[in-house]
Amino acid sequence: MELQSANEDHSQPPKFALPVDSEHKATEFRLFSVAAPHMRAFHLSWVSFFACFVSTFAAPPLLPVIRDNLNLTATDIGNAGIASVSGAVFARFAMGTACDLFGPRLASASLILITAPAVYFTSIASSPISFLLVRFFSGFSLATFVSTQFWMSSMFSAPVVGTANGVAGGWGNLGGGATQLIMPLVFGLIRVIGAVKFTAWRIAFFIPALFQTLSAIAVLIFGQDLPDGNFRRLQKSGDKHKDKLSLILYHGITNYRGWILALTYGYCFGVELTMDNIIAEYFYDRFNLKLHTAGIIAASFGLANVVSRPAGGAISDLVSKRFGMRGRLWTLFVVQTLGGVFCILLGQVGSLGASIVLMIAFSLFCQAACGLTFGVVPFVSRRSLGVINGMTGGGGNVGAVITQLLFFRGSRYSKERGISLMGVMIICCTLPICLVYFPQWGGMFCGPSSTNTASEQDYYLSEWDSKEKEKGLHEPSLKFADNCTTERGKNVVTTARP
Fold this sequence. Notes:
Elements: H1 2-11, H2 38-56, H3 63-70, H4 74-102, H5 104-121, H6 128-139, H7 144-155, H8 158-193, H9 197-204, H10 206-222, H11 231-237, H12 245-253, H13 256-265, H14 269-286, H15 291-303, H16 308-348, H17 352-376, H18 385-407, H19 415-430, E1 437-438, E2 442-443, H20 456-461, H21 466-470, H22 475-483
Antiparallel strand pairs: 1-2
Helix pairs in contact: 2-7, 2-8, 2-10, 4-5, 4-6, 4-7, 4-18, 5-6, 5-7, 5-10, 7-8, 7-18, 8-9, 8-15, 8-16, 8-17, 12-18, 13-18, 14-15, 14-17, 14-18, 15-17, 16-17, 16-19
Main location: membrane
GO cellular component, one term: endomembrane system
Protein name: MFS_1 domain-containing protein
């Protein structure tokens, strides 16, 4: 069936606007194109993820008003911040599995529509408990990050997948900074119309809620799971087999590289989530700034995503062309470690100007590390791509929860002290990257053993047993393996394999 389809594809004229590889994944990334299905999927994924970020972090820039209205204590605010990122821990893992089984389009749109009511209900929160609950359920939508990265890894080939993942994730994360500007502006406009401040902040939440709802509808109408079509249609036609949940989970959970990336991602993306929750209030309280001014400064942290995370993905692809997978790992290690150093310094300085400069430097390196992480993730597993994405993405939320529990809950530490301690955690939790090793490409400190004859095919086909291979179920993994020989680096001669 698959061989016949392949032959038919060769006899037909090209049906994609972008050049593609043997899996029909795009080998070029054209940012300003909206060509279906590759670039359309890109724009739908980042816009919908952006909408979820705006909704999840719509509350922090208005906290000085909300806390007065609901009589929130410092502990209440800390708990709500933790709640906003803790729900997505399990949601992200579940999202990865859902993507493997049902495709990123349906998985993403369903979650966005399910969580949108929580954003609407924020407008009627009347107590610390109800405020915590709406933030908790709104935060589930952050799991759309997993579907975003899965979608990009399904649409773009190895030489550009880091760039695609970086730009989609970075522009989506941009919502964390944009909401710092959007919500105070919307709040101000509603006040000008005539609403009192304790009513204005409630009305303001209808804007991100509506945006989130519309983005889900767009994904459902215009999106497509894979270059060749949606999961359901391809499974019905026999062009894609329906995999077993138990085997998808097994091959993902037993791959130690996924767990290491989950840990290290907890201290780049997890730190970013933490900063989104605390940074506006930090500048407002420490430097006695106006709410709008603190929001603008805080926004610059998240807005750096417009260049930083995409740059991380692009750099990962660039170093891979010369140094292969080892170059991706080294760059991730160095960039994330430097981010930890800047974080430590941010908590030490006492002037507004120096704090802003260090915050921007920290944001650039922290978010670039996020892009670099997902330059590695697509190569960990072919069969359990969604699970590995979910594990890594969930690790980001676990890092955020642990960090906020340790350093930003209650009054145990001042916020500046907590920021410095967070920087120490970043450096410590980056060290395990040294342990990531691919038998076909090597790791940070050594390449493949001279006695090791493992190839890309050996690595990715090990996820399939002999009976599955007899049925031809391993064919997509074989194509993927052939397209990953670029990860050997520039100086390694690649040869065609049958």
